[in-house]
Amino acid sequence: MKARFFPFTVSQRVHLDIRVGEHDLDAAITQAKDKVNEVSFKLEHLIEQIEQIVKEQNYQRDREEKFRMTSEDTNSNVLWMRNLGSTSPAPEAQSRNH
């Protein structure tokens, strides 16, 4: 560029780097973000699996509690019937009396 009023030549060089939008400064940053996203996805999957396991354990506990209560009721009824049977005369004694 020549100046009109100066007897010597003036030159300038201007470098413009215009970036529009999102630009990563480094490929390592992109890789790190991808790795974080991958780990985040795996973590969410593991959390879902843990929640499912907890649900299954609670279901199993409920079933075991119902089974235990049924077993205790059955044992109680068997004991009651046994005690009831021991208070009545034996079947052989009843047949001899007739």
Written overview of the protein:
This protein has 98 residues and is mainly alpha-helical. It has a domain at 53-85. It has helices at 27-87, 91-97. The longest helix has 61 residues, at 27-87. The protein is rod-shaped. It starts with 26 loop residues before the first helix and ends with a helix.
- Helices and strands, in order, run as HH
Task: Give the overall silhouette.
Answer: rod-shaped
**Radius of gyration of CA atoms, rounded to a whole number:** 44 Å
The major beta sheet can be summarized as: none
Q: How many DSSP H or I helices? A: 2
Counted beta strands: 0
Query: How large a portion of the residues is in β-strands, by DSSP E?
Result: under 5%
Question: What structural category arises from helix and sheet content?
Answer: mainly alpha
